[in-house]
Design goal:
single chain, about 400 residues, mainly beta, Lipocalin, four-stranded antiparallel β-sheet, 3 helices, about 45% strand, globular
Length: about 400
Amino acid sequence: MRVLLAVGLLATLAGCEQKLHSTRADAPPLPSVSVAPSPPVLPPAAPPPAPKAKPLPPPEIPGWAPPVATDTLVLLDGQPHHLRLEAETDSTHRLTATYEEAPGQLERVHGFEGYYTITLRDQAGQQVFRRRLRKAAFFKKAGPDIVTESEAYQPQFLGYSRPLGALVFTFDFMVPDSDVGAQVVLLLDRAGNVLRLSDGRGPGSGPECEPALSPSGGALLTASELLRPGRPPLRFERPDAELVGASFLTDSTVLLVYAPGKAHLIRFADGMEGYGRTPTAQQQQAPNAFVRHVRTGRVLRRFRYHGFYEEMGYTIPSFRLQATHYLLDEKRGLYLLPLAGVGVPVELRFAAMPRFTPPKRLAEVRVEVHSAQNSFAFYVDTSSVQPRIRYQRLAE
């Protein structure tokens, strides 16, 4: 509200009109004054909501973990199905097992019971089967001590083989806070019955052999055998050698590499005992790598290859490009194994390969490979019929 102040204010009323007249003011006018309205009275503010308490993390108990479950959509013979995989560790049911840490020295370990449930439902949600397994089902393949100490990890679905009539799964087991463990491959038929248990790849030892179905799904490769429909398993074990690795080259061929000499107990100079191999000179000179036919098991090629190394299990440094499988031997060079045809692979020594100097050519494909002591980059000319490869030794 504004108020006008004046000296000698005269006001006259004429008829119905009201006019305001003012005379000259000798004193300067007072400044205008704004009067703010009184603020409204607000109700007292509500107290802020109390913060929600964060859920407590699960207790850290070696060998125990919260239950886990996942649902997966899979195609079986072209029809969609729902596959549910569950794992649960039962902390109310304790297990005990013993193992031989050294000859004549037994150790006792403890853990909890574990349950593994596999449920298959059709597209309409109707249950096809439900299979529940306990830890004891895996004692024979993975070892009762490792399985007992391990928490119950969720099984992984590897795939479905129509020729084998099997759904294939892998189960992992690990000793807590260590690199000791095992893997088991499980085959179930379409009714949920157990067809077979086989060996998977161990996390800290054993051959380089990832369980895999062949490209067509007609065969299954594990760390100890090749499973084919209508034929007995092709076992990889040999009395005079250790399996280093196995892998599919094509749908009809598989590559097997062995370390000459069988591992046995050795007493070292410091009095300690361990396992090692002592191959004979004849074994060292004999072929130790084989390409075998998947269906018949017949050996199609045999050759010597000693470029593998052993650190937390065996490793075969290799790569595949176009129609060739390349095996690295850091002391000699590359072995070029054509995926088709027969015969021994081509050995390409480092001395026959030019060293890489920039720039990289348009037709070259660069591949990095790591061995036990070195790392290499190979530049493979994919436009050349004959092998044309440059190499580069990479700095650590």
